[in-house]
Amino acid sequence: MANSNLSNAKNAKNDEFYTQYQDIEKEVNAYLEYNPDVFKDKTVLLPCDDPEWSNFTRYFAQNFERLGLKKLISTSYAIESKKYKTDWQPTLFETENPLFNADKSRVCGKIFVLDHDTNANGRIDIDDLQWHYLEGDGDFRSAEVTALRNEADVIVTNPPFSMFHEFLAWIIETDKQFLMICNKNSVTYKDVFPLFKADRIWSGRTEWSGGMWFETKYKEDVDKVVDGVDMKNVASIWITNIDHGRRHQPLPLMTMADNLKFSKHKEIRGKESYEKYDNYNAIEVPYTDAIPRDYDGVMGVPISFLDKYCPEQFEIVGATESEGRGFSNGLWDEKSKVSQPLINGEKQYKRLFIKRKL
How far is Cα 62 from Cα 82, in angstroms, rounded to an integer? Predict the structure, then answer.
């Protein structure tokens, strides 16, 4: 399917998709528009990367001076440590370097560093990247990569999908700023949702609808070919703890009466009232644009609400956990024995629960 989930990827052989340059640029520009100095004098770490062809490394290296970076660090996994095995061929970037060792490349990760003008051309850019082998395989959980995490101010990456939860925990245990890509459905997981609820993390700037298109190197993953490049569409989003202007823009909403009269959604238009859950005192709002601006009680909304969430406008009070399991850190928990909201006895899809502040 063209809009497949990242959750499917973790069970597949291929655990890696490569982010497009324009998607990175579009996302980062939103933070620069809100705060032009957001990266100034900071060390940026790109772990779980493949610097030889990574657009993350390319973007931050090419824009090193414009962003005002202090240092850029990028690390890669060793060939043999990757989940998906291929007929590996080293790049010219590696083989032309006197440090290159084919045996080491198979078992050792690499670290790429950019922090000064190495070729004396008067600017700091991608041509000034220097690299050497790591002692280990480049796993982000290793002591040497963790030391790089501790050195960094900002962490940016698209981690292997199957390692998302471990990777997020690895970041959250520090106070580092971060920007990363994850599965859209992961926002309701019990190790992720409390962070959204506490406003410790939030959705990035890029809209959720339509998923994201990634380059893939594996023919079984191809959804379309663009200019000779194999691409796959994945239901993925950016999450971050770096502020941007969109999240402070209140949603323009109608009153409950106007929604019931004029809503474009047949589930609402023409009805006497919004439906209520059988097992909790909250109304069902099946679409974000149908949230009534004048309702004071609890509302169940789609998880895509987070794409438009303004913390000055709404409070997040709970969620249903993924797969219908009890969610101990939100509204629905083992104590109440309620794992999913019901309407006329029928289970509803995953929901966030919100209340208005204004």
Answer: 27
